[in-house]
Structure formats: C-alpha cells, structure tokens
Amino acid sequence: MIRLHRSNADTMKDVEIVVIGVPDESNSHAKRKGTSRAPDVLRIASNDYEFFERGGKLIPTCPMSGTLNRKCIFDAGNIPDKHRLRELVTDITLKGKLPIMIGGDHSLSTEAIQAVSSAIGKKLSLLYFDAHPDFVSSTTNYYGSVLTDTTQSLNFRKSMLIGTRAAEPEELENAKKVGLRILNPLEIAEIGVKRVAQMIRARTRGSNVYVSVDLDCLDPAFAPGVSVPSPGGLSSIDLIYLLNKTISTGNVVAIDIVELAPDYDINNTTAMLAARIMSECIASL
Question: pLDDT digit string (tens) for 100-154?
C-alpha cells in the first residue's frame, strides 16, 4: 500500500488532518477515463518530487507559504467503496479533524459535503474551483450534478464557483436562481487574484467552508492530465495563491482534490502539481 511520506502518524487518534484516497469513477461520464488510479499516482508524485534523498535520509521540501511543521497528518489509505466515504468523513469531522479527499471523479464531493454538513449541523459555504459548475438538474447522481445533489447541505449565497468557463445553460440558470456567485477566468484576469481572494473572504466570513478543487479549473497548459480539459483556465500559481488565502482564514472544514487522469498526463506534470496543491493547502491550515 502506497502511503504519503508527509503522513507522520500511525493512527488517526491524535492527528489534525486525515488524507483519504477515493479511487472511484463510477459516476463519471467523461470520455477520458482513469481517475480511479489518481489517489496513488498523486501519492507517488508527492513522495518522488517533494522529497530529496541524501545520506540515506529523506529531506522534505518546504511550502511557499505557511508551514508543515507541527502538522499531524494521517494517510488513511484508499477506501474500497465510495459509499463508505460518508461514514468515514462523518467520524473524522465529529472528532474535530479535517478530511482531505483525493479523487477519483468529482461525485465524491456529494458524499463528503453531505457528511460534513450533517456532522456539523449547519449548511456549508462551498468554494468550487472547477471549469464546470456541476449544477445539472435534468440528470442527477453523477459528477455533473454535485451542486444539485447537495443543495440541502449548502448556503449558496455564501458560496462561489471559481474558474468556471464551460457551463451548460441550465447550470447558469440554476446558479442564478439560488444566488450563487460565479467568477470566470476572464473576470479573474480583469480584477486580479488579490481582489478575488478578498471577495472570497468577504463572502464566506463566519461560515464553515468546504473547498473542492477539480484540477480542470486549471488551464490544460498547466494541467493536461484531467478527465474533462477546458482551455482558458487558471494558472497554477493563481490557484495556489487563492487556496492559500482562503484556507489560512481558519474556517475551512474539508478539502478535496479530484479529476486527475494519469493516462492523459504529460511527464507527471499534473500529478506533481496536484501533490503540490495538497501540500500547500495543508501548510496553509
């Protein structure tokens, strides 16, 4: 079993952060398959490229912001069935720990959002970094209907879609009906990431925030290995900046990183970036 070198605990008992692999793409309609291999591919990328080996010792690299020192992390491995995720995430949340899920297709967010909201007893603010709104309502229970399937668990007026640029008309209409703010990459380029970070903080203030990162929010130039690529996306450093400024506020209760498609990656570019995103997220907590 592949474990993250950054996992520094043997059990879940005394940790703050629990990493869970969800090697499932059963609810994906993507033509590009293979996201079920992503959790272990991301772990391998982290272990191979975020550590140096010298004198028989593993030397970790440091994050750009925040710190990994004194962060207690447990890699819980992969769960064999996505439907067991709800039970596990509920248990983790009730114990005051933060779950980080590695997908797998984006439908894992449905299970996790519902579990966290139920455990906390409140609706969540959702920060959804994705090329697609995943707000289809004419069809449900798949990776394109996450927001529809979790409506009862979310406060849409305290949530945002970020990097969205490949929306279906019904998705835009659904977002408009519930007051969900969408920021597409053109708007982000115009106002700048610093202003976007301020907008995120203002909108989510006082809320419990669930952060979901579909790697296709990034431009394919930075992340070619995703299941549904869409040109015109965010840059890698802009995404990491926004995640850092969001997570460092201290009100994030869960994170997921999804839709890595290793078979379509180029020289592990996307896998390495996904590993970096996860490390920077943890460092920002």
Answer: 999 999 999 999 999 999 999 999 999 999 999 999 999 999 999 999 999 999 9
The residue with tokens 């849409």 is 156
Per-residue pLDDT reduced to its tens digit, 201-249: 999 999 999 999 999 999 999 999 999 999 999 999 999 999 999 999 9
Q: 197: which 2 tokens?
A: 């970070």
Residue ranges per structural domain of the chain = 17-22+32-284
- The residue written with tokens 């909108």 in the block is 203
Domain 17-22+32-284: CATH architecture, name and number where available: 3-Layer(aba) Sandwich (3.40)
Confidence of residue 180 (pLDDT cuts 50, 70, 90): very high
